[in-house]
């Protein structure tokens, strides 16, 4: 455990500059705007007062580094400004919507894990057979299919034709957890194909590598049952791979959620950021990007910690 | 094939004996590659047809992509309209062909931007090392922490909505992936004996990078670039679906799906053609990428 503790401190220390740079990227987005950002942000029919107000809000009249410092200081207190349209606080908007997105992302991760891991094991243990070929082809399909199109097809089949699931909408997980899961099922399935496909491939190739190792040959030679070799020695060694892949997919699922949420009219942060980008509601866009990147960085740290607990070699190497 | 796969050693052994060209790029024969890999040949043929359809669309498309016909809206496939018409009576096959141009342009632009930023940055930091490498690597980590579409949407929101801006944004979001690969490869090549030898002969830094490091480190990047084309294509479709990419009335596969979805209860058939176009194109890029991976490194096990 000593190694793990040291590893966590070191990784956390490495994450501080990454976090600072990420927040800077979010802040600097404003400067990509053509022309005077205050005028752009104020919209087409802005009064001179409104422009001055925005200039003061962002501190555009201050030196660059002061602007960033002030913005970061406010962000640390979860003050992300106000929506330019509804005038609601950005932090409130995000807090209201984040649970919907997190439900979809975790639901899709779980669906991807319960399908992808067994498929990967099956393909690896039947390597070269027709079943293996079928599974790997399915995985190729899984990474190439547009999630939002799959979403549309699922709506058409399961909601409109067979009326098994609601077509669109969402229920808050705090109000009625079962209904929330029911409503989230179709979008989560649409999101999960990538996770399934990538996990299948990675589990398959990691397991093949482990199973061809010398010590596995020794275990087999001394007469250990194949099932015991697989479960006790094979799978334990690919746990870190599974966790790392799941961590990366956590990031990519937010990407897909941006588009899939709008198919299912889920009021999550994904539809919030795309809607706000269309309407030039830039404080909201920045707020969502900031919250998501911080979330991803924290999850990356968690994955590293779990990995080093699972596999002491990881802790020793970093 | 099945038996060979069961024993990777035999596979690479016999493959190496049968096609020595695979391990020696100078003996590379395009036709031999195509014959040995049916999937890649299929993918390349499909992409060639797609490129031709996109280029020749103004000449061979049966209708104008923006010509509306209120008398024939959301039609089923007929002899006049092979794939039917959309909600404004525009010919779906025509819009599919024009959409191909936008899809390929988008994928090329995004990946081009990613290469132009990612490759030089990766080689440079890998080559010089030290604190510059340390700092830039943290920047790469930071950009990689953003969900790519979230970053692309945010940048598009700032730059202004439209296909070119959206794809510049996607390219920027992809660049760190290439930079990371390129950096790692540069580190490997930098340690090779022939680079030491070149340094011993007094080669300049520029000469080293251009003649030794870049050609030897670029191979995995070529594979990654091909695979990224598929991801960029999917990103374009998604962003156009949200109307952040291609703007109406221009045709895009993602945009067509958005319209088809609005009328899904009246004309469900309209949702298939653009979706399959996206799926097949992404599959083709991926198949090509995997094939190039095997071609460049025959010891790699096929996945």
UniProtKB/TrEMBL annotation, chain A:
KW Lyase (keyword) present: no
Superkingdom, taxonomy of origin: Bacteria
Cellular component terms per the entry's GO annotation: plasma membrane
Membrane topology note: Multi-pass membrane protein
Chief localization: membrane
GO BP annotation list: transmembrane transport
InterPro entries in UniProt: BPD_transp_1_N, MetI-like, MetI-like_sf
PROSITE patterns, alphabetized: ABC_TM1 (PS50928)
Residue runs in coiled coils: none
Keywords in alphabetical order: Cell membrane, Membrane, Transmembrane, Transmembrane helix, Transport
Compartments it resides in: Cell membrane
Record carries keyword Cell membrane: yes
Domain named ABC transmembrane type-1: residues: 98-303
Segments passing through the bilayer: 12-33, 102-123, 135-160, 180-199, 238-264, 284-303
Annotated signal sequence range: none
Membership in a protein family: Belongs to the binding-protein-dependent transport system permease family.
Protein name from the UniProt record: Peptide ABC transporter
Organism the protein comes from: Pararhodobacter marinus
């Amino acid at each position: 455990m000593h190694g793990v503790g040291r590893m966590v401190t070191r990784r956390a220390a490495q994450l501080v500059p990454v976090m600072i740079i990420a927040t800077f990227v979010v802040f600097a987005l404003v400067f990509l705007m053509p022309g005077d950002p205050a005028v752009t942000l104020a919209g087409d029919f802005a009064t001179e007062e409104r422009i001055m107000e925005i200039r003061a809000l962002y501190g555009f009249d201050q030196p660059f580094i002061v602007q960033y410092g002030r913005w970061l200081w406010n962000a640390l207190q979860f003050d992300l400004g106000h929506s330019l349209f509804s005038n609601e606080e950005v932090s409130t908007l995000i807090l209201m919507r984040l649970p919907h997105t997190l439900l979809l992302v975790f639901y899709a991760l779980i669906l991807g894990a319960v399908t992808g891991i067994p498929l990967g094991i099956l393909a690896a243990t039947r390597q070269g057979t027709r079943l293996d070929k079928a599974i790997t082809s399915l995985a190729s399909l899984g990474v190439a299919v547009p999630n939002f199109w799959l979403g549309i097809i699922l709506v058409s089949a399961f909601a409109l034709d067979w009326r098994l699931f609601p077509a669109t909408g969402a229920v808050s997980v705090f109000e009625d957890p079962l209904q929330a899961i029911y409503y989230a099922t179709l979008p989560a399935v649409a999101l999960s194909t990538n996770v399934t496909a990538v996990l299948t491939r990675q589990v398959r190739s990691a397991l093949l590598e482990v199973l061809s190792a010398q010590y596995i040959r020794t275990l087999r030679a001394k007469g250990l049952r194949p099932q015991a070799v697989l479960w006790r020695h094979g799978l334990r060694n690919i746990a870190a791979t599974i966790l790392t892949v799941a961590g990366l997919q956590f990031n990519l699922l937010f990407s897909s959620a941006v588009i899939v949420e709008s198919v299912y009219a889920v009021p999550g942060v994904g539809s919030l950021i795309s809607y706000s980008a269309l309407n030039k509601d830039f404080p909201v866009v920045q707020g969502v990007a900031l919250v998501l990147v911080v979330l991803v960085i924290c999850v990356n740290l968690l994955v590293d910690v779990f990995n080093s607990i699972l596999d002491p070699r990881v802790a020793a190497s970093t | 094939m099945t038996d060979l796969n069961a024993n990777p050693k035999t596979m690479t052994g016999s493959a190496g004996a049968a096609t020595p060209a695979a391990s020696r790029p100078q003996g590379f024969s395009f036709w031999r590659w195509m014959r040995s890999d049916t999937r890649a040949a299929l993918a390349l043929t499909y992409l060639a047809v797609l490129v031709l359809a996109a280029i020749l669309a103004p000449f061979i498309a049966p209708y104008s992509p923006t010509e509306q016909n209120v008398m024939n809206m959301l039609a089923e496939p007929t002899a006049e309209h092979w794939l039917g018409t959309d909600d404004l009576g525009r010919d779906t096959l025509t819009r599919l062909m024009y959409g191909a141009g936008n899809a390929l342009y988008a994928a090329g632009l995004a990946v081009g931007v990613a290469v132009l930023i990612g490759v030089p940055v990766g080689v440079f930091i890998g080559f010089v090392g030290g604190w510059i490498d340390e700092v830039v690597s943290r920047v790469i980590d930071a950009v990689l922490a953003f969900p790519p579409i979230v970053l692309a949407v945010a940048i598009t929101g700032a730059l202004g909505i439209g296909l070119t801006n959206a794809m510049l944004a996607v390219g920027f979001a992809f660049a760190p992936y290439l930079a990371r690969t390129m950096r790692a490869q540069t580190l490997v090549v930098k340690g090779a004996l022939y680079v030491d030898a070149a340094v011993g002969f007094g080669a300049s830094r520029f000469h080293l990078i251009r003649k030794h490091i870049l050609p030897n480190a670029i191979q995995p990047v070529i594979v990654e670039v091909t695979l990224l084309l598929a991801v960029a294509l999917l990103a374009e479709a998604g962003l156009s679906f949200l109307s952040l990419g291609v703007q109406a009335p221009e045709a895009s596969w993602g945009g067509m799906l958005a319209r088809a979805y609005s009328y899904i209860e009246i004309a469900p058939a309209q949702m298939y053609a653009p979706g399959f176009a996206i799926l097949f194109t992404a599959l083709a890029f991926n198949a090509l990428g995997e094939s190039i991976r095997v071609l460049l490194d025959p010891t790699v096990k096929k996945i």
